[in-house]
Amino acid sequence: MTTSLRLTAKIDLVMPALLARTERMWRHPAPRELYLEWLRALHGMLRATVPLILDATTACLARDDEIARGVAVYLARHVHEECGHDQDVVNDYARAGGDAGTLLREPPLPCVAAVVGSQYYWIKHAHPVALLGHVAVLEGYPPPPDLAPLLSRRTGLPLDAFRTLVTHAVVDGTHREELWRAIDALPLTPEAESLIGLSALNTAYGLAQLVDAVQLRANAAGKERSWRPSTNWKPPASI
After folding, report:
1. Which of 31, 93, 123, 181 could form a disulfide with 98 if both were Cys (CB 3.0 to 4.6 A apart)?
2. What digits encode the pLDDT tens for the residues 181-201?
3. What is the DSSP string of 176-202?
C-alpha cells in the first residue's frame, strides 16, 4: 500500500461523519445567513494558506534532509495554485450582500485559529511535512458540482456569488492527485508519515468544529433578521 493510500485510509475513518455534518449544515433553515457565515469562516482559513506555504517552504530550506527538499519542491508548485483564493471568497461575500470589509477587520473564529495555528507549530517545532496532511483534508474532498446551483436556488442569490464553490469543485480533484504523487515520492520515515496523518486528523476535527460554529452564528443572524418590534406594544402602567 502506498503512503497516500495509507493516509487516505486514516482520513476516511473520520471523513464520512464530517461530510454528513456538512450536508446537514447546508440544509440550515436560514440558508442565506448560513452561506454568509460559511464564507466568513472559509476566508479565515484561506487567507492563511499562502503564508503557511511560504513559512513551510522557508522551514524546508533551512533543513538538511531529503524529506524537506521534496516538500519544498511540491510547495513551490502548489503556492501558485493557491494565490488569490482568499480574494475569491471576498468577492463572493460581496456578491452575496455581505460587507467585504468585515472579512479583514474581524478576527477569525477560534476553531480556525486553532487549525491554522497548529500548522505553524508543527512547521516550526516538528517538521514542515506536517502541512501536507492539512492540505490533504482541505483539497482531498472537493464539493460536489451541483452544490453551488442548489445553494443558489435555496438562498435566492445569483450563481455568480458561488464562484469559490464552483472553482473548487473543478480544481481540487487535480490538486488532490498532485498531492498524492508528491507524498508517494517522498522518502518518508515512520515519524514523518505519522505527523502527516496527525495533521490531517487534526484539520478534520477542526473543520467539524467550524461547521458547528457556522451553524450557531447563522442561527443568531437569522433570529436577528427575523425579529421585529410589535407595533401594538404599550409600556406597562406600573412596574
Report:
1. 93
2. 999 999 999 999 999 999 999
3. HHHHHHHHHHS---HHHHHHHHHHHHH
